[in-house]
TrEMBL record:
Organism, as annotated: Candidatus Caldatribacterium californiense
Keywords: Cytoplasm, Lipid A biosynthesis, Lipid biosynthesis, Lipid metabolism, Lyase
Pfam families in UniProt: FabA
Lineage per the UniProt record: Bacteria, Pseudomonadati, Atribacterota, Atribacteria, Atribacterales
Protein task: Involved in unsaturated fatty acids biosynthesis. Catalyzes the dehydration of short chain beta-hydroxyacyl-ACPs and long chain saturated and unsaturated beta-hydroxyacyl-ACPs.
GO cellular component term of the entry, any: membrane
GO terms classed as biological process: fatty acid biosynthetic process; lipid A biosynthetic process
SUPFAM superfamilies, A to Z: Thioesterase/thiol ester dehydrase-isomerase
Localization per Swiss-Prot or TrEMBL: Cytoplasm
Name listed for the protein in its UniProt record: 3-hydroxyacyl-[acyl-carrier-protein] dehydratase FabZ
Length: 149
């Protein structure tokens, strides 16, 4: 299954300037592949770094997390939840991501118990790994500003 930005926005609560996934190109049970097109127009390049624009590593991780959240929140039982980071493990950055790069992020579900789980994310540019991490998360159901278990 594929999703364009409109479908992604139906699922994820993130919005500009913090929606960091442009397209889902593959979605199956336990695995998702998403794309973030990195352009010079990104807000973070104004200060990171002037004259040498590099996508911040934490935003690469956030992009991977949003791709994974799209997979999890696509499931009917998790619709309406808010995804929260719970942990980051085995994080590795392999090379900088710069304007003009297309981040292709493959995210796999490692385990899930209730609404808490762990994902494995790998981000690539032109088949070269640029970052990887294990992403712990919690899907919290919120109604009218209050957490509901």
């Amino acid at each position: 299954m594929e999703m364009d930005i409109r479908k992604i926005q139906e699922i994820l609560p993130h919005r500009f300037p913090f929606l960091l996934v442009d397209r889902i190109v593959a979605l199956e049970e336990g695995k998702v592949v998403g794309i973030k097109n990195v352009t010079m127009n990104e807000w973070f390049f104004q200060g990171h770094f002037p004259g040498r624009p590099i996508m911040p590593g934490v935003l690469i991780l956030e992009s991977m997390a949003q791709v994974g959240a799209t997979m999890m929140m696509y499931m009917e039982e998790f619709r309406g939840c808010i995804p929260y980071f719970a942990s980051l493990d085995n994080v590795r950055f392999r090379r900088p991501v710069v304007p003009g790069d297309q981040l292709v992020m493959e995210v796999t579900l490692l385990r899930m118990k209730g609404r808490v789980g762990k994902l494995k994310g790998v981000a690539r540019v032109k088949d070269q790994v640029v970052a990887e991490a294990e992403l712990g998360f919690s899907l919290v159901r919120e109604e009218a500003g209050k957490e509901v278990s």
